[in-house]
Amino acid sequence: MIDPSWISGLGVILFGIGLLGAFTRKNAIIVLMCIEVMLNAANLNFVAGASHYGDVDGWVFTAIAIAIAAAEVAIGLAILLSLYSTQETISLDEASILRN
Amino acid sequence: MLTILTLTPLGVGLLLLILPQILPGSSADTLRKVNRSISFGVSMALFVIASYIAFENFGGIDWLNINMGEYQLMNDEPVTLISSIGVSWIVGVDALSLPMVWLTALLIPLSMLVEWDAKEGHIFHPLILVMEGALIGVFVALDLFVFYVFWEMTLIPMFFLILVWGGDDRKYASMKFFIYTFTASVVMLIGILIMYFHTGDIAGVSGSITGHHFNLLEMNSEMIQSEGLRHLVWILLLIGFATKMPSVPVHTWLPDAHVQAPTAGSMLLAGVMLKMGAYGFLRVAVSLFPESTVVFIPILLILGMSSLVYGAWVCMGQTNLKRMVAYSSVSHMGLIFLGIATMQPLGIAGALFMMFAHGIISPLLFAVAGAFKHHYHTLEIGSMRGIAHHSPYLAAHMMLGWMGSLGLPLLAGFVAEVAIMIAFWMSFGWLVILPALTLIITAVYYLNSMQKTIFESNDRHHGILPESLHGEEPRDITWHENTSMFILGILTVLFGIFPFIFFDMMSDWSTSFIQDVLLEEIINQGVKP
Amino acid sequence: MNLPLNMSEAELIIPELIMLAGLIAIILIPNFGDASFRIPLSRMKVPILIGGNRFKLTSNPKLPNRVSLAIFSTAFFFALMQTTYGKVGDTLEVTPFSRLFTLIFTAALILATIATTHRIPARANLNAPKDSDSENVATKKINALIDNRRQVDFHIILIMVGLGMSLMSMATHLFMLFVCIELASLSSYILVAFHKESKVGGEAGMKYFIVGSVASAIGIYGMSMLYLWNGDLSLDALALAWIESETVDPIAGIAVGLMLVAFGFKVGAAPFHLAAPDAYSGASSPVAGLLATASKAMGFVALMRILITVTMPESGEAFWFTTIAIIAVVTMTWGNLAALTSTNPKRILAYSSVSHAGYMLAGLAAIGSGLASEEAMKLILTAIVFHLAVLVVFKFGAFLVLSLLETEGRSHELKDLHGLARREPLIAGSMFLFMLSLAGVPPLSGFLSKFLMINGIVNVSAGTGTSDVSSVMDWVTSVEPVFWLAFAIVLNSALSMFYYLRIGLVMFFEEPENNKPMKDALSLRIAIAFCALFTVIIGIGPLSDSLLQMAADAIDSFISN
Amino acid sequence: MGETKNEYRLLLPLLPFLAIVPLLSLQSDSSPTDFAWLIVVAPFIMFPIILITGQVYNKNETWKNTWKEGGILGLAALSVSLSTTIWIVYDYLIGHADIQENTVASWLEWISFDVLQSDYTISQNRILGVDVWVDSLTLMLLFVATFLCFLICWFAIGYMTTDPINEDSNHRFFAEFVLFSLGMFGMVLADNFLWLFIFWEVMGLCSYLLIGFYYWKESAAAAAKKAFLTTRVGDVFLMIGLLILYDIYGSLDFAVVFDDPSTGIGGAVVESSQLFWALMMLFIGAVGKSAQFPLHVWLPDAMEGPTPVSALIHAATMVNAGLYLVARLMPFVDVHHHGVAGLEDFGLIVAWIGGITAFMAASIAFVQNDIKKVLAYSTMSQLAYIFTGLGSALYFLNTGDHHAGYFVLGASLFHLFNHAMAKGMLFMASGSVIHEVHHAHDHLHHGSDHGDHDFDPQDMRNMGGLASKMPVTSTAMMFGSMSIIGIPLIGGFWSKEGIIAETWAAYFHGETMMLGPALLILATAGMTGFYMSRMWFMTFAGQPKSDVIDHVHESTPWIKEPLLILTLITAIGGFALAILGVVDFLSNESQHLSLHGHSLTEQIIHELEHAFLPEDSKLRLVGWTTILLSFVIGPVMAARIHGGQLKEGQSANIFVGWLVKLSGKLGTQDVTWLAESQLAEALDKRLYFDDLYEGIISRTVIPFAEFSAWFDKNVIDGIIKQVESNSVLGSVQIRKVTTGSARDYILMATVGALCIFALLVGVNA
Predict the structure, then answer these.
(1) Residue C86 falls in which region: left (phi positive, over 0), alpha (psi -120 to 50) or beta
(2) C86-88 and C92-94: which strand pairing?
(3) CB C365 within 8 A of CB C304
(4) What is the nearest CA distance from D712 to chain C, expressed in angstroms?
(5) Domain range spanning residue A64?
(6) Can you tell me the distance from the alpha carbon of B277 to that of B287, in angstroms, rounded to the nearest whole number?
(7) Cα dihedral: A40, A42, A43, A45 (round 10)
(8) Is residue C318's pLDDT more than 80?
(9) What biological-process terms (Gene Ontology) are attached (chain A) (predicted)?
(10) Which of C394, C417, C504, D409 could disulfide-link D587, Cβ–Cβ 3.0 to 4.6 Å?
(11) Up-side HSE of residue C152: CA atoms within 13 Å toward CB?
C-alpha cells in the first residue's frame, strides 16, 4: 500500500502544474484541462485521506468531484463553443472586448 | 405639534412629487400652478403653526426657564422607530432650536415666493417643501440617529435644486456640494457611533439588540471614560459641523454651491443650512463634551478667527456678486465660533442671535444677488453701473441687505456682533482688534460692490447695462421678489430694533447652558472668564 | 426500506422541495402535447401527453416564465412562513439563518424572473417567417422564435441556481456546501453566457467560467487538504478540531487560505474580483443583478461558515484577521476607485458591488480581531446579513432599471441613462434612490446597513484605546488598528459618492437622445417601484426593525451551532 | 418762481403737528422729559411714510406741488421734534427740572444678558437698554440739532425742489434727511454709550446715503464711500472703546459710569492705563466722525452731496458728534468728581490732534476755489479748535484745576454752538449762491443744462460782485464769516477767545507740551481771518468774473427765511448767551442761563472785561494777538488780494456795502508767485494725504485681497481639486489592471493567493 503522503505529494505537484498552466496558457481548452488537473489533485487528496483515515467519505467525495468535473467540462465546452461562434477564437488573450 | 411640523412638509412634498407622475391627465401648466399653490399653502400653514409655537412660548415663564435637560417637549411620548438599535422619535425645541425652526418656517414660503415662476415648477416647489421637512427635522430631533438622518436628507433636495435649476456650472457645484458635506458628515457619523457605543440601555428603548440608544437627552460626557477619546469624538463632530457652517479651511464647497444654486436654494442654503452646523455643534458637541470644548477653545478661536478675517479678505478679492456674498457668509459664521469660544453667556447668546440674524439677512442678500442674475443675467461686479435707475426697488433692498450684513446698528446683524464683541473683549482682550478691523474690511467690500453695480453711471437717467442683457430693456424686480425681500428687510429692521424678542430667550438659555454644562469645566480647566 | 426523507424533515425543506418539484415540472410542462402511444398490435392509442403537437397552453412561450415566478413566489412564501427548524439528514440543517438566506435568494430570483420577462421577451402567436418577408423582418422573426425556444432553458437554470443556493445555506457539511455552490455556480456560468448570439455574452461567460472554475478548483483542493488534516468535513467536527489544536496547523491554515480564494471570488474580493465587472457587463441585467446579490450572499454564507463557525478561536485574534482586514481595505478602495471613471453603468455597479464586499469583509475582520464581545460579534454579523438582505432591494433595483433600459437596446453606456428624468421621472427617481442607498445616504436602507457595519467596528474597537490618556494623540496611537477600518469605510463612502451621484447627474442633467417614453413593461415597473418603496421603508421605521430582528435571530441561530 | 406768494399755504399741514406738544403739555402733569421719545419717534415714523409714499406717488402733481415731494412731511416731523425740544429746554431753563438728576431707567430694555465673572459666578441680568439723558450738554446740542434740522429742512424744500437735477427723487432726500435727524437726536438723547454709538452709526449711514444722493455721479458715489469707510475706521475703534468701558464698569449707562468713574464693577479700582486706552479708542471714533487729522480726508469730498446736506450734516450737526462724545468723557478725567487721575496725556493728545488739524485745514482752505470746499476746510479747522479746547479742558480737569477746566469746556461747547449756527448758515448761504448762479446759468444757456459741463456753479472764480445781486445772502454770509473768524463781539468771538486763552493758560501752567497746540491755534486764528474773508470777497466783492452773474437774483422764500433767522442768531446770539453765562451753564457749573443776579450792564461790562482785559498779563497778550491776527491781518490781506469795488451802477445794502467799499480802498496785491509755488501745489493736493492713503491701499490692501482670493481658489480649493484629480488618475490606472484577458485574472488571483499565504504565514510566524 502506498503511503498517503506520496499520493498527496503527487497531488501537490499536479495542482502546481494545473495552476501554472491555467495562467500561462492562452488556449481556453488547455486551461480547461489544467482545471481538470487541479480537480484531480484534489481527488488525490481525498483518496489519500480516505486511505489514511480508513474513511469511506473520501471515496464518495472523489466520485462526486469527478462528477462535478465532468459537468464543468460539459458547460465549459459549451460556453467555449458559443464564444467561438461569435468571436472565432478561443484564445483567452484575444477574447477581451470587455475590459477596463 | 413638532411632529406635524416635520412630517407634513415631507409627506405633502413627496406626494406632490410622485402623485402627478402616476395620475394621468392635466396639462403641465395646470399641474405647475396646482403644485405651487399647494406647496405654498402648506408652507404658510406651517409658518402659522411655527409662529404659534414660538409666540405661545417665548413670552411664557416656562420657556424662559429652560434648563439643559428639561426640554420643552412638544411631543411627550417617545415613539420607538427602530427598537433593535434603539432609535426613537424624540422631538423638542428650546431656545436654541426654536428660532431656527421659526426661521425655517419663515424662509420656506419666502423662497418659494422669490422663485414663483420657476421652470418645472411642479417639482420645484414641492422639493422646497421636502427641504422644509428635513430642515425642521434637524432642528427638532433629539435622537442622534434621526438627527443624522435629517441632516443628510437636507442634501438631497438641495442637490436637485442646484442640479436642475442652477447656473452654468451646476454639475460640478452640485457634486461638490454633496460629496464635500457628505464626507464631512460621515466623519461625524463615526463620532456619533462612538458616543452611541458608550451609552447604556435605558428604559423605554428596550429590545435594543445592541444595548445602546441614540437619545441625546440621556447622553453625557461621563459615559466615555477615556478623555482622549472624548476629545477625539469632539474633533470628529467638529469636522462635520465646521464643514457645514462652513469654517475655513473646509469652506470651499460653499462659494461654488451658492454661485450655481438658484435663488431659493441659495436663500435656504445660507439662511438655514449653514446654521445647522452651528446648531449641531452647540447641541451635540458642546452640550455633551463641555470639557473638550473648553480644552479646545484655541481651536475654536483659530477656526473662527481665520473664517472671519480670511473670509473677509477673500471677499474683497471676488468679482462675482454671489461669490462675494457667499464668502461673507463664511466670514460671518466665523463670529459664531468666536462667540462660543468666549465661554460667556453673552458670547453664546450673541452666537445664537448671529445664527438667527444671519438667517434673515443672508437670504435677503442672496435674493438680491439672485434678482441680479434673473433680471440682468450676470453677477459680475462692475459689468454694470447705475442700476438704481432701472431697478429702484432692487437697489433699495440691496442697500438694506448690504448694510444689515456689514453690521449697521438698528439692523439685526449688529446686535449679534456687539454681543459677541463685548464677550470677546472680556475673554480675550486686545485680540478683539482682529474681528473689529475685519468690520472695516467687510464695509469695504460691501460698499465697493454696491458702488460698482447700482451707482456711478455718470448719467442722470440711465445706468450702464451689462452686455449680458443684449440690449433688452432692464426691469425692476417682480412683485413676488419684492414682497419676499420686503418681508426680510422689515424683519431685519424689526429684530435690529427689538432684538429682545428672541435675544432674551437666547440669553437665558445661554446662561443656564454655561451654568449647567460648561461652568464646571471652565473652572476645572482654569480658563479665566 | 427507509425513506431517505421522513415527513417531518420534508416539512422543514418545503421551499427546496417546491423548487425541486418546479424544476421537474418546468422541464415537463412545455413538452405536454397530444402525443399518444399506440398499443402494439392494436389500434388503441393511449395519450401519453409528452410530445406531439403541444397544447395551446403548454406551447405558450410565456408559460415557463409564469411557472418559475409561481415557484419562486411559493418558495418565498413558505420560507417566510416557516416556524419549525431542525436537522435534515446529516448534512443539512434548517435554521432561521438558512431561512433568511433562502428568502434573500428567492427574492432575488423573483426579481430576476420578472426582469427576464422583458429582457428575453416571449411572444405568443408568433409565426415562422414567410418567403415574402424581407430579410430584416425574417431575422427578427427568427430571433423572436429563438427567444421563445429558450425561455424554458433560462428558467430551468434559474431554478437550479435557486435550489443550489438555498441548499447551500443549510449545509452543515463542507463538502455539501461545496457541491451546492458548484451547482449554483455552474448554472450561473450558463446564465452569464446565455446571450450567446452577442459577442460579449460568450466572452463574459467564458471569463466568468474560467476564472470561477480555477477559483473553485483551488477551493476544492483546499477542502481536500482540510480533509487530509481532519478526516471529517462536517463543520462541527472541523470547528472542534480547530479549537483542540493549540496552534494553527500549517496544512489547515493553507487549506483555509485556499478556500478563501474560492469564496473571495464568489463575493468579489480583490484581487479575485477582476472577472466580475466583465461578467456583469457581458451578462444581461437580470443575471448581473443575480450575481451581485444572491451570488454574493452565497459567497458570504460560505465565508462566514469557514471563518466564523470553523476557524474563529474562542478568544483572541483569529489567524486570518490581518489578511481579511487588508483584503477588505484593498477591495473597497479598488472597487470605488475603479468605478470612479467607468462609463459603463453595469461596470459601475459591478465595482460598487466589489466595494460593498469590502465593507462587509471589514466587518468580518473586526470580528476576527478577537476584540469583539459576543454582542459585538452578533451586531456585526447582523449588519452583514442585513446588508446582504437589503442589497437585494436596491442593488437589484438598480439592475432592474438597467433591464428596463435594455428592453430598448443597450445599457452599456452611461449615455444610455442620459435624460432619463425627462423621459421617465419616476424610474429616474427610483434609480437615484437606489444610488443614494448604495452610497449609504440616510434614511435609505443602504445607510442603515452601512451604519450598522461601522457601528459594529466602532463598537469593537473604540473601547480599546487607553482610557486614562488625556490627549487625542495618545488615544489615537493606543487604539487597536481595527478602529481605522471604520475610517476606511467612511472615506470610501465619500469616494463612492462621486460615481453614484454621477449616475444621478446624467439622468437629471443631460439631454436625452430621444424623448420617447420607454416600453410599457408594467411588471418591471411595478417591481422597480416595490424596490424603491422598500429601499425607503426598510431604512427607517417598523419594517427595518422587523428585518433587523430577523437578521438578529438568524445570527443567533448561526452562532449557536 | 412766480407762485412765491402762495407757497406758504403749503405749511398749513404743519399746524396739527405743531399742536401736539402744547396739547401734551396741557394734558399731562409729567415732566417734558418723559416725552423726549417724541423727538426721536416722530422722524422715525415719518421716514418710511415719506419713502414709500414717495415711491408710490412718484411724479404725482399733488405730491410734487403740495407736499413738496415729502418735504412738508419731513418738516412736520421735525417741527414735532423741535417743539418738544423747546419745551424741554424751557422746562430746564426755568428750573422745573434738575439737570443733575439722572437716574437709570430703561425706556427700552434692548438686550439683557448675564456675564460670567472672574470669580466664576454668573452675574444676573445685565441690561443694555436705552433711555433719555438730559444735562446741559444734551440740551444745547439737542436744541442745535432740532433747530438746525428744522431750518435746513425748510431751506431744502426751497433748494431741492427747484433744482431740476433732483426731479422725482426728492422723497428719497427728505426721507434720508429725516432719518438722519433721528440719528442725531437719538445720539444726543441716548443715556448710554452703546445707544450713542448706534445712533452715531445711523448718522453715518445717512451721511453715506446723502453724500451719495447723486448716486449716478461717480465722484459723489466715491465720496460717499470714502466718508463711510473713513468714519467706519473710527467707529470700529469707538466700538472697541465701548468694549473696554463695558469691561471696566459692567455697564455703559452714563448714570452708572459717571456716578463714580474711579470705581469699576464690583468696587475694583480703575487703572488709569486701562481707562486711557478706552478713552483713546473712543477718541479715535470721535476723530473719524469729526474729520480730524488723520481721518479728515472724507469731509472735503463729502461736499459732493446736496448743499443742505453739507449744511446740516457736514457742518452743523453730525460732525459735532465727535466733539459731543469727547465732551461726554469729561467725568472720567474730572478728578474733582471721582475722576481717574493720571490721564493728562489724553488731554494733550486731544489738544495736539486739534491743533494740527486746525492749522492744516486752514492752510488748505487758502487755496480752495470751490466755495463749499472752503467751508468744509473751515469746518474742519473750527472743529479742531473745539477739540483743542476740549483737550485743554481734559488736561485741566485731570490736573485738578477744575475752574479753568470747566471754563474752557464751557467755552468749547459754546464755540460748538456758535460754529454750528454760523456754519449751517454759511452753507445755506453758499447754497443760495450756488443755486442762483446755477439757475442764472441755466437761464442764460437756455434749455441746455446738459450742454455746458465746464461751468462749475460752485467755483468762486466764476463769481464776484454778487453783493448787489444777493443782499440777504451776502449779509448772512458776512455775519457768518465774522462769527467764524471771531470778529470781536460777534458770535464765535466769545467762545474762540476762551479756547485760545485757556490753551495758552495750560502752557503757562507749566505743561510745555501744550505749547504746540497753543501756537497752532493762534496761527490758525489769523489764517481763519484770511480764508473766510477771501471767500467772501471773492464771491461778493469786486467785478463779476463771469457773464452769468448779471442774471443772478434771489428768489425762493424757502431759502431766505432760514438765512435771516440764523443771521440774527449769529450776529447777536453769541453775545447774548455769553452775557447770560452760557459758558458756566454748559460746563454744568450753573443750572440756568441768567444774569446771576447782576444787572444787564454789569454783566456786559464783566464779560467785555473778561474777554479783552483778563487779569493775567500773559493772557492779555495772547488775547490781543488773537484779535490782531484774526481781525486785522487776515481780513486785510484777503481784501488786498481778492477785494474790490462792485461794477459800476451796482450797489450793496448797508450791511455789506461798507465792507465792499473798504476792500476796494485797500488796494490790490498780486500773489501769483505764491499761487504758483510748490506750497500752493501741495495745499491744492490737500497735502497729499489722499494720495498717500490711496497709494497705501492700492499697494497693500487690494493686492492682498486679490492674493487671498487666488490663495483660496488655488491652494485651499486646489487641494480638494488635487485630491479629486488624483482619484481620477488612480481610477484610470487601476482600471488598466482589468486587462480583459482571463489569463491575467487568473494570474492576479494566484498572486493574491500567494499574498494570502505570505500574510498568513507572516502574521502567525
Answers:
(1) left
(2) antiparallel
(3) no
(4) 23
(5) 27-91
(6) 14
(7) 130
(8) yes
(9) ATP synthesis coupled electron transport
(10) D409
(11) 17
Q: DSSP per residue over B287-347, as a string?
A: HH-HHHHHHTHHHHHHHHHIIIIIHHHHHHT--BHHHHHHHHHHHHHHHHHHHHHTT-HHH
- Looking at per-residue pLDDT, the higher value among C373 and C450 belongs to C450
**Sequence letter at residue B7:** L
**Residue B445's closest chain D neighbor by CA?**
D705
Asked if C462's CB is within 8 angstroms of B229's CB, the reply is yes
Map grid coordinates 418565498 to a residue.
C76
Residue C504 has what pLDDT? 87
Q: Which of B145-159, C69-83, C370-384, D705-719 has the lowest mean pLDDT?
A: C370-384
Q: If you average pLDDT over residues B273-287, what whole number do you get?
A: 91
β-partners of residue D132 are D190
- Give the distance from residue A21's alpha carbon to the nearest chain D alpha carbon, in angstroms: 10
The full set of domain ranges for chain C reads: 312-561
Contact D756 C323 (CB under 8 A): yes
The three cell numbers of residue C189 are 456560468
Per the prediction, chain B carries an average pLDDT of 85
C-alpha to C-alpha distances, B253 to B182, B276, C454, D447, D714, nearest whole angstrom? 11, 16, 26, 57, 13
The pLDDT assigned to C181 comes to: 94
B43 has a pLDDT exceeding 80: yes
pLDDT tens, D177-186?
999 999 999 8
Report helix angle C199-230 to A28-53, nearest 10.
20
Q: What is the pLDDT of residues D464-518, one digit of tens each?
A: 778 888 888 888 888 888 888 888 877 788 888 888 888 888 888 877 888 888 8
With cut-offs at 50, 70 and 90, classify the pLDDT of residue D99.
low
CA dist., res. D514 & res. D448, Å (int):
56
Q: Which positions in chain A touch D743 (Cβ < 8 Å)?
A: 23-26, 31, 92-93
Residue partners of B505: CB distance under 8 A and separation at least 6: B58, B63, B64, B95, B98, B99
Residue with cell 415731494: D69
CB D222 to CB B451 under 8 A?
yes
Which residue from B306, B308, B364, B357 is spatially nearest to B333, judged by alpha carbons? B308
- Burial (0-12, 13-18, 19+ Cβ within 10 Å), B382: middle
Check if the beta carbon of residue C12 is closer than 8 Å to that of residue C85.
yes
What are the extents of the domains in chain B? 296-529
Torsion angle, CA of C474/C476/C479/C480, rounded to 10 degrees?
-140
- Retrieve residue D44's grid coordinates: 422715525
- Tell me, yes or no, if A39 comes closer than 8 A to chain C by beta carbon: yes
The DSSP result for B12-77, as a single string, is HHHHHHHHHHHS--S-HHHHHHHHHHHHHHHHHHHHHHHHHHHHHHHSSHHHHT--TT--B-SS-S
CA distance C433 to C441: 9
* Phi-psi region at D450: left, alpha or beta (left = phi > 0; alpha = psi -120 to 50): alpha
Query: What whole-number distance in Å separates Cα of residue C398 and Cα of residue C436?
Result: 11
C264 CB neighbours in chain D (<8 A) are 752
- Distance, in Å, from the CA atom of D503 to the CA atom of D522, rounded to the nearest integer, reads 10
Q: Is residue A51 part of a domain?
A: yes
DSSP 8-state assignment for residue B286: I
- For chain C, what percent of residues have pLDDT higher than 90? 39
Distance between CA atoms of D3 and C484, rounded to whole angstroms? 89
Is A5 a member of any domain? Answer: no
Give the three-state DSSP class for D263: strand
The shortest CB-CB distance from D743 to any of A19, A23, A100 is to A23
Chain C nearest-CA distance from A1, in A, is: 17
User: Are D308 and D431 contacting, i.e. CB atoms less than 8 angstroms apart?
Assistant: yes
To the nearest whole Å, the CA of A81 is away from the closest chain C CA by 8
Domain assignment present for A66: yes
